[in-house]
Design brief:
Blueprint (H helix, E strand, L loop, with lengths): L1 H28 L7 H31 L7 H28 L8 H24 L1
Amino acid sequence: MDALKKLSAVYMLCLAAAVTAHFIADPIYDPESTGMSPTIWAILNPMMVVGVVMALAVAFERKLKLNGSIGPVGKEYLEANCIFYFGSAFLIALVYNWVGDAWATPEKDYGPLWILLNTLFPILLVPAALRLLRR
């Protein structure tokens, strides 16, 4: 089980690095989004959904562990719940935009939301991956 957790953590870290690097480099090498950029995003988007689901699983496990304890609401409790609910909202927005981009009409793809999602993606995944590596 530890090997699976470590492998999941490495996957999330590599994916966060890939999304961040592509997000930053995309306007440089393909400013018109006519070359390889849309193809790379089409590959990364489902991988991002898997990564967010993995981060949510880590957050949910931590939330369940802390919600069972009796005591005052502390920093760790707030962190666990905020990360879980932020991740849930992030997943909904990501799937909405991904489905709109991949299968619906182009009007269902909200461009500014992609900027927000791609910016916040590593902020969600990296702490979850590091938590898995520390265990």
